[in-house]
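Hey,
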Amino acid sequence: MPSKYTETFDDGPGGWVADLRSPLPVWDGVAYCYSPWSVDANHAPPGAGYLHLLMYLHTRTTESQCPADAEPRVANRFVEQGCSTNLTNAKLTVRLRGAMTLAGRCCIC
């Protein structure tokens, strides 16, 4: 079981999903996600509250996977590599970039 999982998106979404209605767009090794994002009601009150899911990854595949998922049959590199679903003390490193508008001015981050 590998102790490190790395996703570069060089060969498609690799099992990552950004919204339930359309496939995760990937261009030149970059995954793009746009609002409106999916809302995770599993953490609704009295928990942490509704969470906006920018992107997520199924950590295992099952026959009971929701048929509404946009990419249920696309290769999932996390599952194919046999990565552990025990994420206790896991370290997550991400590279993000984006554009946002603040007070009528556009800045590229």
